Amino acid sequence: MSRFAELVEQLEAASARLTERVLAEMYVDPFWRERFGQRADKHGRQDGRFHVQYLQQALATGEPAVLENYARWLQQVLTARGMCTRHLAENFERLAAAIAEEPWPDRQAAVDLLRAATAALTYEDGLARAVQRRADAVVRAAAATLAEDDASVVGELDALVSYCADALALASPQVLANHVAWLAGFHERRGMARERLVARLAAVRVALEQELPESRAAIAGLLGPALAAASG
Questions:
Q1: How many Cα atoms within 13 Å fall on the side-chain side of residue 161?
Q2: How far is residue 135 from each of residues 121, 141, 165, 217, measured CA to CA in Å?
Q3: Which residue of 35, 65, 127, 132 has the fewest C-beta atoms within 10 A of its own C-beta?
Q4: Predicted TM-score (pTM) of this structure
Q5: Cβ–Cβ < 8 Å for 59, 8
Q6: What does the pLDDT look like over 104-160, one tens digit per residue?
């Protein structure tokens, strides 16, 4: 029997409650319901249960790779469907934070596994990995260029950089362009001119080129369609 048998049982009993908490925290951002509609509820709950189930399996078997492999598989599925890696990482991080507040003696083991699963979302090689590893610096530089340090703006820049990495990993600039086209409409419905989104993308492009000067051509090829989508 696993030394974490009790923790596995505690996670089973709390699975629905933990999932609802994570979803409630994520849905504070209107992005989710606008982007995915009723599917956000259905698939959000399904994914939440799967997160806990794979976490339980990793604990029961003593194999962190169970959860890490699941995380990488889900990353491929979700990034091809309009989400970005940062969204999945946030989900794992929120679940870890919720578990950390439970009164369970062995809760740290579950938290550590979820942190390892989040780390496993870093791409193994190539420009996609380089973009992920420099994401914080890129976001800071872009925010400084825009002279905007509002949390919502920084969060959007962070997601845009994540979409850049995912589009590179999928070898599909259209993944980023599709998101930007949707984002332009999302902002327009809230009274924000397209020019501001164009400026944010341009700031991301400049920051990426500064961080990865050897990849200017690839970055231009990635951001070109996205800037066109933002401009309408």
A1: 27
A2: 13, 10, 9, 18
A3: 65
A4: 0.94
A5: yes
A6: 999 999 999 999 999 999 999 999 999 999 999 999 999 999 998 889 899 999 999
